[in-house]
Amino acid sequence: MRGLFTTSLLAASLAGVVLAHPTENGGKRRKTLGFGPDRPHAVFKSSPYDITTSGFIPQSALTSPMDVARIFVDDLLRDQEARSYRVRKDSYTDETTGITHVYFRQLVDGVEVADADINVNVQDGMVLSYGDSFYKGPLLRLHDRSLVEGARWPHTEHCNSLTDELVTRYEELRRSRMANLQTPMGNTVEEMEEALSPIVDAHHSNCLYHDVPHTLAHKSKGDIEGALLQFMIAATPNDDLVNDMLARYDDYVSEMSAHPVNSFAPGESPYFMVNNVPDTVNPVKAKMAFVQIPTAEGDSTVLHPVYKFEVEMQDNWYEAAVSAEVPHRIISVVDWASDSPIPKPDEGRQTGTYNVFAWGVNDPSEGERSIQKEYFDALASPVGWHTIPYANDPTFDMTRAKPKGFYKNTTTTYGNNVFAQENWEGRNAYLDNYRPDAGSSLAFDYKYDPKETDRTDALEEAKGYINNTVTQLFYTCNLIHDFYYRYGFTEAAGNFQQYNFGRGGAENDGVIANAQDGSGYNNANFMTPPDGQNGRMRMYLWNTIIPYRDGDLEAGIVVHEFAHGLSTRLTGGPANSGCLGWGESGGMGEGWGDFIATSIRATANYSDYTMGAWAANREGGIRNYPYSTNETVNPSTYKTLDKPGYWGVHAIGEVWAEILFVVQQRLIAVHGFSDTLFPPLPDAEGNVPEGDFYRARSGKKPLVPKHGNTLSVQLVISAMKLQPCRPSFFDARDAIIAADEALTGGENFCTLWKGFSERGLGPDAKLEGSTPWGGGIRTNDHSLPTACAADKL
């Protein structure tokens, strides 16, 4: 019945929402795919009881953390058939906390299980916490075709759930209007767009793409090219190209060529590079793998062979798993590009208005520009912001010219951490794009005085201030880099730098920061491939008012986007960018950005905060509510995720950010407020003074921020390293509490629980009937653990 009823309902009532995707004011909605299978057996354990009952005996503090982790995992897997694994090379010891993060990837018959990971967090011979999503079934299942055919295919389940959700929410809106004695006609579509847009967007991108006809689907002989072409038919937003690929299927397959690449590095799996792939900007990396698919019963998984692709397109950078067997089903997709939401601007609002808006001045409405000096942090950016080794400079050809020393000093917005430039054409190229050149003085001081013009001239008016715009973006991104570095986003943890100064991690991945990107309006996004590949930030103009407003000048948007790089690289390890793709995990990827942006602009005088208010020309910003401890201003709780309009990752992220905002205020009430989030600069020997920023310490214990706002930022960032791949709200909450245990001995246990419980995420909060894309029924819990019985909310 679903098909007939849904078809007529969506056609009659949702056509304008589902099918019409150009946005107001000329904005363009980027197509993005994102779904994957559930892993019902995945766990995150952070209590000593859970760890000791696994059979593990704590080791000597002198034992290598890697050996401790191996011993622990061998104990954990002792009763399982599939016990083979490799230790991923992105494992590292965090210099900020002294905790070693070790990442294990499961192998079956020598082939990786792409979504089977164990992350173990070790300190002084002890396992502090671990996450486990290894395949638990018998290897005999690998050859049982009936299990595969009866499995719950994630794409089908995802689209059925989206359709059911659309129908349910539409009916709720219709009944609500009738209860208010209003006709369901009139502006129903406008109301539906507001409440249903996240579900509609997901349905449009993931469920309305062209199915490959049966005759074509079976033409492939299980080859890489056939599987990849079928993914591109789903992924491309170009309908003309889709039709051509379907019409000339054999031609496109034959034009692609896959070449094996074998690595001499131990532990590296062989892979293929596929050339001439339609609608891509670089060759596609492909390799064989297994993924886990839930069985029909839903309580276990079965392994399925796939091709795992890394597909870089103009507006997307996908990690996709496609069935290696015919027909080639798309099993999972993660888009490494993360968007800001496109708002619906308020009508008729007019506001009149290196040298930059300084750190803490969120946008032009909050203060004036001032001359700011380059922040020379010898730990975070040892050679400053305008220096890069010749060997790591993508514009320098070592075969054509001899370098004039080791380092190259630049006079533009181009350095080791960030390449900032205009991108008016909205293309992938960036090396030769325009950048302001301040000459030997390095004084980036440019005019910014936008004038109101006719709409036809508004774009050129905005372009006239590109020197100021690129300078601001370069300044903000470098400060964010240095800020995150000091809280633990270092080279070993996967940060973004061209040269890593011999301190670990993969190199040649500075952030490509594009200002006034021509590929859209009223948005921003960040693409985060694994460590060793450049992050890419695209900032847009906002045509919500004339003169146009420039997203590069609203720090909160830039901070939010850079936070995608932070959370993606830290969660699940630097070499795994597939951990925050959808559902609660994807939502928290959005929420962390809002939380950090709000923390940066906060002052000692408490205030509520909006996001995107200046750029979007909306007093209330682009979120449903301002961030506030006042429940009448922001009523969000964990249960809010069940409401209409809270399906998409941005709405989920708002709830997570609000919970973190409340937790932070609880910590501030206990520990006070620091007027700066930046730790003290190191001395000439590289030692960091405690000053009034850190607690006094002895020996080699980690530095712990002493104030509530700085401590909360440290706990949130440290917790990203502890939590498992694809965490739930519960996992992320428990990881923050575990981070406090590691840093302070659990001093803030009850304070943290008070904050979480205040917004429904207490110890007995529940999620029943969960789906990997965020569905299910949630139950709030406002109680506290027994250990906090003497405390009250």
UniProtKB/TrEMBL annotation:
CDD domains from the UniProt entry: M36
This enzyme's EC code(s): 3.4.24.-
Key word Membrane present: no
Signal peptide: 1-20
Residues reported in the UniProt entry to bind Zn(2+): D339, H560, H564, E590
Cell compartment(s), UniProt: Secreted
Pfam family, one: Peptidase_M36
Active-site residues, Swiss-Prot/TrEMBL: E561
InterPro entries in alphabetical order: FTP_domain (IPR011096), Fungal_virulence_M36 (IPR050371), Peptidase_M36 (IPR001842), Peptidase_M4/M1_CTD_sf (IPR027268)
Main location: secreted
GO biological process: proteolysis
FTP domain span: 89-134
Cofactor: Zn(2+)
GO molecular function: metalloendopeptidase activity; zinc ion binding
Family to which the UniProt record says this protein belongs: Belongs to the peptidase M36 family.
Annotated protein name in UniProt: Extracellular metalloproteinase
Organism in which the protein naturally occurs: Schizophyllum amplum
